[in-house]
């Protein structure tokens, strides 16, 4: 009985929070700074910042009158220089990006103080992983200490007041940037790589997050079977309760409020209609939604592509031409331990022995381990049919758009998913390891553009299950169907405009700034 009362209490609390958000007083007109001046405030993690960097390149190429300032952490400086050089090589009118370094630990660096390394993120889906999900969600909401949050806030406040941009472009995961731009009531726009359901499920009618949409990190299929609805309700309510009543988050909010920050770290950032929300997700590439707010602007895949693959790495581009290629790229965060590498090697050995393909495998090690883990593929490495790289110096979308990649194996990151969508008829095999990654695995299967092998054992991999998934995506009727659906979705994606549409919106907002 007590549990039922608790559930009802949380449900009522959730409704009250939504009502409070919808009943707040109309905002004052935002403060707009110098005309054609844009300030980006983002984290440096590739998965979070790639949409911002890609949009920066589009701005440099198409809107040379826009003065771009970019504030982030040291790790991103080299990537922005690469983008700036690429734009300048094509147009002498392109202005250099003005770099501003943030002087506290980055989002990932702060989170890794708890996780240790990327393997600390790994968690099973569903109820089994709910306890870790709750801990991780609290950490992801704010990995910084209260003093670090305030330090970041002050640094970015000083930048905004000194640069006086017409528009501030935000990364929703850099919470102090969201807070300071809102507190100063600046003209702002959010650029997001996330699935629309990740952002908007809570705004759907009739309590849809509880019975219609799989809970974050659940790994449940869509449409949600009735037999899983109670488990889904439990996961949603547990997460809501944990976040609303988190002592750590509450203490940080009080600390920032006492410093004068207005409404710090709100539970739902997308609720503010005065801040356009540009999303690279688009309705046709996600789960169906009944309601998309007018200030949310789906623009399709925002991809970073500084040049064709042969211009970025001529030798690698030439190697791709040797045979149809499977790309195994589990993003920038996933690192392999010895067991993971051994299971993947075993699966790739089966693929290479049963098909006429070759494999490009990006293998980042979590720790040093012996070459014995790669024993199943030794002969294929020697023959050149398997190429292993610790990092890819070519933009992944550039590789996919050569036409030589026939299968994209990835971890379920938003960038990898949308890059594959934008490539002609490339099926996806998704191997998620934690929270949000399970969502894109669900979406790919629902839309018929990919498969998630080993969902029953996730996050554990086993060579036999992986190889079966790879072969199904490469051969037979299932492969034909996925390629057909992928081609259809690519045609829709290209109509949205991607980074060019995002740049156009930002440039338009910047052009409305104050004449100096």
Automatic annotation (TrEMBL):
- Please give the InterPro entries that the UniProt record associates with this protein: Glycosyltransferase_28, UDP_glucos_trans
Q: Where are the transmembrane segments?
A: none
Could you tell me the keywords of this UniProt record? Signal, Transferase
GO molecular function annotations of the record? UDP-glycosyltransferase activity
Nucleotide-binding as a keyword of this entry, yes or no, is: no
What range does the record give for the signal peptide? 1-23
User: What is the top-level taxon of the source organism?
Assistant: Eukaryota
Q: What is this protein called?
A: Glycosyltransferase family 1
Organism per entry: Purpureocillium lilacinum
């Amino acid at each position: 009985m007590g549990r039922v009362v608790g559930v009802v209490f949380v449900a009522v609390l959730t409704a009250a929070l939504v009502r409070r958000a919808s009943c707040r007083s109309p905002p004052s007109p935002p403060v707009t700074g110098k005309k054609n001046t844009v300030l980006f405030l983002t984290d440096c993690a590739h998965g979070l910042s790639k949409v911002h960097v890609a949009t920066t390149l589009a701005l440099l190429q198409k809107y040379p009158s826009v003065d771009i300032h970019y504030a982030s952490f040291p790790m991103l400086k080299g990537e922005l220089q690469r983008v700036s050089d690429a734009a300048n090589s094509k147009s002498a009118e392109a202005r250099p990006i003005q770099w501003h370094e943030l002087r506290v630990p980055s989002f990932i660096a702060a989170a890794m103080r708890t996780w240790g390394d990327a393997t600390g993120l790994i968690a099973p889906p569903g109820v089994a992983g709910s306890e870790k999900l709750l801990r991780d969600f609290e950490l992801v909401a704010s990995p910084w200490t209260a003093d670090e949050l305030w330090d970041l806030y002050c640094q970015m406040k000083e930048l905004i007041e000194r640069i006086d941009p017409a528009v501030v472009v935000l990364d929703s995961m850099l919470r102090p940037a969201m807070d300071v731009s809102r507190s100063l009531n600046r003209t702002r726009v959010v650029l997001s790589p996330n699935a629309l359901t990740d952002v908007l499920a809570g705004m759907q009618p009739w309590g849809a997050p509880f019975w219609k949409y799989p809970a974050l990190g659940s790994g449940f299929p869509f449409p949600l079977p009735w037999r899983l609805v109670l488990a889904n309700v439990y996961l949603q309510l547990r997460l809501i309760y944990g976040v609303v009543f988190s002592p750590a988050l509450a203490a940080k909010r009080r600390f920032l409020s006492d410093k004068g920050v207005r409404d710090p770290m709100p539970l739902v950032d997308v609720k503010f209609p005065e801040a356009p929300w540009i999303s690279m997700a688009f309705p046709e590439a996600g789960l169906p939604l009944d309601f998309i707010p007018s200030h949310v602007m789906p623009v399709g895949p925002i991809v970073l592509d500084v040049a064709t693959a042969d211009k970025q790495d001529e030798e690698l581009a030439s190697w791709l031409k040797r045979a149809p290629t499977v790309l195994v790229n589990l993003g920038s965060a996933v690192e392999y331990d010895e067991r993971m590498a051994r299971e993947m090697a075993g699966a790739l050995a089966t693929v290479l022995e049963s098909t006429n393909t070759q494999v490009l495998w990006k293998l980042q090690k979590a720790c040093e381990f012996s070459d014995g883990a790669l024993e199943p593929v030794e002969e294929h490495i020697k023959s050149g049919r398997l190429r292993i790289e610790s990092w890819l110096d070519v933009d992944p979308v550039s590789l996919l758009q050569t036409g030589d990649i026939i299968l994209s194996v990835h971890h379920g990151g938003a960038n990898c998913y949308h890059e594959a969508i934008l490539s002609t008829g490339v099926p996806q095999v998704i191997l998620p390891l934690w929270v949000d990654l399970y969502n894109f695995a669900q979406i790919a299967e629902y839309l018929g553009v990919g498969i998630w092998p080993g969902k029953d054992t996730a996050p554990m991999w086993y060579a036999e299950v992986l190889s079966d998934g790879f072969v199904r995506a490469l051969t037979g009727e299932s492969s034909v169907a996925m390629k057909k659906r992928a081609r259809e979705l690519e045609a829709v994606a290209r109509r949205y405009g991607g980074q060019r549409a995002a740049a156009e919106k930002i440039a338009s907002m910047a052009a409305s700034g104050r004449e100096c």
